[in-house]
Amino acid sequence: MAENHGTSEEVATLLQRVDALGPTLRERALEAERAGRHSDETIADLDATGVFDIGSPAEFGGLELSVREQLDVVAAVSKWDGSAGWTVWAGASTNWIPAGSGARVVEEVYGADWVGPRVAGSSHFPASRGRAKRVDGGWLVTGGPWTFGSDALWAPFTNLGCISDDGDGPYLVGLQVPRSELRFLDDWQVAGMRATGSVSITLAQDELFVPDYRGVDFRDVVGGTLDNGLKGSLWKAPSLGWAFSLMAGMSIGIAQGALDRFLERSAGRPVRGTTYKNQLEAPMTHLMLSEVHSKLRSATLMTRANADETDRIGALVAAGEELDPQYMQNFSARVLVETAYAAKWCAEAIELLQRNSGSTAIMDSEPIQRSWRDARVITLHGALNLEALSENYGRLMAGAQPHKFAGISTLDRFAPARP
Length: 419
Known about the structure:
The chain has 419 residues and is an alpha+beta fold. It has 3 domains: 8-99, Butyryl-Coa Dehydrogenase, subunit A, domain 1; 118-223, Butyryl-CoA Dehydrogenase, subunit A, domain 2, CATH 2.40.110.10; 237-414, Butyryl-CoA Dehydrogenase, subunit A, domain 3, CATH 1.20.140.10. It has 12 helices and 9 strands. The strands form 3 sheets. It has a 4-stranded mixed sheet with strand order 1-4-5-9. A 3-stranded antiparallel sheet has the order 2-3-8, with no helix packed on it. Helix 1 packs antiparallel against helix 2 (40-49), helix 4 packs antiparallel against helix 8 and helix 8 (239-266) runs antiparallel to helix 11 (367-379). It is globular, with a radius of gyration of 22 Å.
């Protein structure tokens, strides 16, 4: 059975490097927020720890960690700086797109030396403003801009979502485009995750020719139907389980960092309006900390279980087993809704810590307020609409089909065939 995971020693060493870099990430976070992007120095420092290799193919020198191990890395980085955690998450969880695009794209993305994330993705949704038309030898791309281009500032390639129509109805195409063919807009002025530099992207010219092999029907990408030449079971793992388990890891890491910071700054701090001279000795603090623990612990256990199941499914598929479509549909819907709940609980935990940190916790220099904003941004991600995801999973629990919708998180592609 094909498996992929680093040795326990490799993972432990990587986590030690992240912890050693952590205080520097936190120190640089305010300047990076004001710049709207990480510095090239920070990207290089992150790269030196190995975090951009955690989801890269072993055949090309990548660490190719299991999803469960990748989860620990994303959480570890996010503990120090949510924006850095987002950058690592996007770099790791986007790897399934080039891997699903065939062996030639894989060779192009991972074959050369590079400092930073290998690939970015942008606008893989029906609302994409990109258009792709089949022409001799490839695709003619127009339109844009493509929004929310996380990691595009540092990756050698960005996969652009484009709508195409050959006469039988529109469908989504993923087009792998070199950074030299792109321009990046200075439009990332946001409430949180400010240093991720998730800018909008346009073409360098009015239109762009993309060779045929770099453009793939996204149904083939999500279905894993193209041969990529990769052997590990990671490449057979369900993309939703991979991407969203790691997304929850961001929330978990940010909340853990906020808790650590609260405990650090509260020692010896008086509680106004009471006679308590040390906040950590006040019963109100103890009650609050227990609630924070419960929210964080619930999110962590649920997310770890989803990551473990993602790895198990990947191993089964790599071994040639066929999975029950009903199970896969339920699993995918469950991962989505549980990621949304993990994000919610972690954001609520941070809000408790923020509310009990006093007025100085609103200062730009205080990491807790940044954690508070970053965690809320995760809950607003387009794929984490808690109410919609709850309804869809509830419908499955009740024996009904979820809503039909398009995009990466589409659930009906897993539905069992009707008799």
